[in-house]
Amino acid sequence: MMRGSLLAVVVLLSAGAGAGLAEPLTLVDDGRPVASIVLAEEPTRAAQFAAAELQYHLERMTGTELSVVTDADPVAGVAVLVGESAATRALGLANEDFEPQEYLIGFRPNALVLMGRDADDRSAMDYQNPATFPGDFDEQGTAYAVYDFLERFCGVRWYLPTELGEVIPQRPTLVVEGSDIRRKPAMIYRFVYRGDAFPADLIGDTMEREEGYPSLDRRSSRLFMRRMRQGGAQYRANHSFYGYYDRFLDEHPDWFAQGYEGQPPQMCFTSQGFIDQVVADAREYFDTGKAYPGAVAAGDFFALVPMDNASWCRCERCAAEILTEPTLGYSFTSNNTASENIFGFINKVAREVGKTHPDKWLAALAYSRYVYPPEREALEPNVSIMLCLQTRRIYHPESVRNDREVLGAWTRESVERPKFVWLYYCYPTLWARKQGWRPYPGFFAHSIVDQFAEFHRSGVQGFFIEPAYLAHNQRSPLMDQVELYVTYRLGDDPTLDGDRLIDEFFRLYYGPAEAPMRELYELMERTYADPANHRGEVAQTEAQAWLTLGTEERMRDYGRLLSQARRLAHGADPIYSERVRLFDRGIYRWMLEGRERYLELVDMRGSTLPTAQIARIETAGGDPENVDWSAAAVLDNWASLRGEPTERQVQARMAHDGEYLYLELEEADIDTSKLVLGDAITVWNEDEWEIFFARERGPRYRQMGLNAAGVHYDIAYDEDSSEWDSGVTLNSDITSPDRWTVRMSLPLRQLVHGGARAGDTLYFNAIRATRTTRSLGWSPTFGGFREPTRMGEIILAE
């Protein structure tokens, strides 16, 4: 045992400082502490945090608390050197010698070194106050060293927030030995959106309720995300030009997409004035750190990403660069129709910025209609790329094939270019959350193993993940439990065997209930992955969830396996029974209730669909403000999407003049100051109206979503197109404190596939969607929003 001043410690350590030559180190001997955790006199915040985490886990493991001392204090027994200190410097180990995110687990005579690159932040850390923990993107290599040590040498695992998810082997004596490990995470950027937004019961729901769902305490959430090594390098890439509307639309309308009425949906990516302004903004950010509202930038990266739609500029220059049909990818979304236009713009900016800031990066997405690399000219070398991939659609062969082709195309395009991936783990819960039902879970952990092996072979340097979203801005820890655990571990270390990680999860987490819980998970995983259970559809619907995926027979099989698991866990450590109960409540019974609810709604679907005679009025010239709305047909008797009556004051009015359809949407008796506007990227996750038109009830229809600011997105679900050029003229009025009124005109010739005229019978629905209360519809869908078989009938009078 070593005991003495820091000077004595330094002398002894330096005398035998050969790396990896130490004897086994005993930290706890039969419940007695024989080691001390040593910090510098003025340790970094990351080192303080790492020491507290080490102390906590070793006490949970051995029942013994190791003291935390400074390098000015006497040291009892083995010195566990956490972070840079006088002792590590005597060993030739200093903070500045480590690369970003690099760390060391070092074995020395009578000493264990756990240190890495830390931010030079010496402020106090309070282990009970999560606000004082290191942030996602703070350098915290010492914390990484502690976590790796606990995993490799102590068998610790973290599978969920709170002690319920902690696997900490119990032992009265702790002896460790090994060779030095000096490394850093393989992927430098590891970020899950809403990473710590967990429900308090670890279950939550995709269906909203007025009072919301309590959130897990901040400390438990933050601790779990630190243990997953969330964060890393400062990097961001996302839609980055929404701020240009307020900054430049009035003065420079030519910088925006041409050929549209109202607010342009995109920028003009061939406008030299726009290009020059983007160059100036990027240079200002790199010089001063200033990013204007709506800009997306972090560290050495400045994003160049269009608005989140495919309504491209129609000027001659842009039109010449937009393909009418894709030559790569599949037609509806992920293809190359706009690749030349978007990456041509990015190249123009990158060349200019590169002249003044050659060591900085312009961050681009490979997304939607520009998911493939350009072919006319090579992308500039100072551009990073993030590939947007539908990795959870393992049941859809075309999506799987397209993702592989996209990854292959960018790998061939450049080996050196920094590549990241944006992974959509958010489906099917996002579809269900938006429409207020419960989905069949999309388990796919074994597929992630193969996906990440390909990412590493392709040189991918990081991931951004949209997780399984729940209502009220929460995310599901259970729907993604195995998936995100495997993702984080393989992102950190590609040498790990992913299938063994999954096997280990069931063994360590469920203990004696391992076998039935593994069989249950894998049965659900195979069911979700089977294309036959999805009938060629991309999006899971409520009907699909409970008629072809979660069938009565399958649910019975799942219940049988859970009964076996409960019996096997009974009598063992209570933690195993508690974990089985959590899956039972949070997945199985949650599914049962969702299925029962859906079947009840099926019985209600016999209700009559609404019909309206749409009056023909005097010509209004396409201006909704010229319409005599008192002469319009009233579309009233709105209800919830499940057909329940409502006391809310919602109605629509509709008329036509033979050339235009005129529509008024209104909700009264509300507080318009509380209308929810989103993040300016999309209208779908906020207070909005959604309207639907079709020639007949079926899969070919048009959809528009619009928010309180008057921003709208138009989509065509046609065989030959996904673009709906609606030609809408629209005004959203929230000036009244208690009334939201939208008025619009739509050219009949563009209303439905093939156009419409007086005398036609069409099909229509309108939905008042909201994040804070249940959605209402003119025609209850008894399902999600997009239920074309439930559209009401409108007859355009001659």
Write the layout of secondary structure elements.
Elements: E1 3-4, H1 6-15, E2 25-29, E3 32-33, E4 35-39, H2 45-62, E5 68-70, E6 75-76, E7 78-82, H3 86-90, E8 103-108, E9 111-116, H4 141-154, E10 157-158, E11 166-167, E12 174-176, E13 181-183, E14 189-192, H5 218-227, E15 231-232, H6 244-248, H7 272-288, E16 297-298, E17 301-303, H8 316-319, H9 339-356, E18 361-366, E19 383-389, H10 397-413, E20 419-424, H11 429-435, H12 445-457, E21 460-466, H13 481-492, H14 498-510, H15 514-529, H16 542-549, H17 552-569, H18 574-604, E22 611-614, E23 633-635, E24 639-640, E25 649-656, E26 660-668, E27 688-694, E28 701-707, E29 712-717, E30 729-733, E31 739-747, E32 761-769, E33 776-777, E34 792-796
Parallel strand pairs: 4-5, 4-7, 7-9, 14-21, 17-18, 18-19, 19-20, 20-21, 22-34
Antiparallel strand pairs: 1-6, 2-3, 2-12, 8-9, 8-13, 10-11, 14-15, 16-17, 23-25, 24-33, 25-26, 26-31, 27-28, 27-32, 28-29, 30-31, 32-33, 32-34
